[in-house]
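Hi support team,

I submitted a single chain yesterday and got back a structure, but I'm not sure I'm reading the token output correctly. Could someone confirm the output below corresponds to the sequence I sent? I've pasted both exactly as they appear in my results page.

Thanks,
R.
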Amino acid sequence: MFMKKILAAMIATLIICSMNFCEASKKIVAVMPLENISGYDEEKVAEIMTEQLIVAIHSSGIYTVVERAQLGAVLKEQGLQNIAVSSDKAVELGKLSGADYSMLGKVTMAVIEKNPTSSAVSQLTSILGLEGIGDMAGSYVHKFKGKIALEFRFVDNTTGEIIIAKTVEGIKSGSSVNAAFNNACKAAADNFLSELDSLNPLRARIAEIYGSDIYIDCGAEAGVRLGEIFIVARETDPIIVNGKIVDMKQNNVGKVKVVEVHQDYAVCREEGLLNDIKKGDVVKRS
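Hi R., thanks for writing in. Yes, this is the structure output for that exact sequence:
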């Protein structure tokens, strides 16, 4: 019994150490206060967009985010709380907060408008004398559409280099103004994450196929996320430059969706029509 308790304690320690190592190996991002020039409710725009960006960065599996309280303390100390900062200042603040990268930006557009689809459904069902059905259909048609644009810069705090400088948009509907705006912010954050993925191109292979389960040889450590869709390609002829093989030609053969993520591998399922996916095929982000 005593030996079993020791063994259990050792296993628990190994698991905790492993988790801490994985967390420590992630790059840290400081998300700076956003500037809002959209004309929409400033506090609401900044708060919701920031939260969605933090969630997106965390979900990458590669990055983690400086705690808001910790970053807030640094900003307060520098007299910059809730104030948009320049790239140079973001690097300085990022270093003070212990971050590898700083993300700063501004909301350039935030619009909520009535969804024309909802009105069209109501008018059509009224003309046809199907008001009851119209009410039922209306519950499935979102009444509002949210649009948001985020102009951002992603800066390396070690070199001061701006790695990415782009504008992403989010357009989503919702059953209320708040829901539409939240959904649009989430869509913009997801598009931001897609840009961030370009810094960490995935290149994996299909290790095994068992029934409908397709196993790839990369997992959470490589930033694979649940629900991601990857392109599957098959290598054919070599690409030769100056007498050297520099790469392999690839033909896309299908797509797979991640349904289960482990530390060093993931399980996928074929997406769309049945394709000729085989063991050894290359898996890559689109």
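A quick pointer for reading it: The first helix runs from residue 2 to 24. Let us know if anything else looks off.

Best,
Support desk
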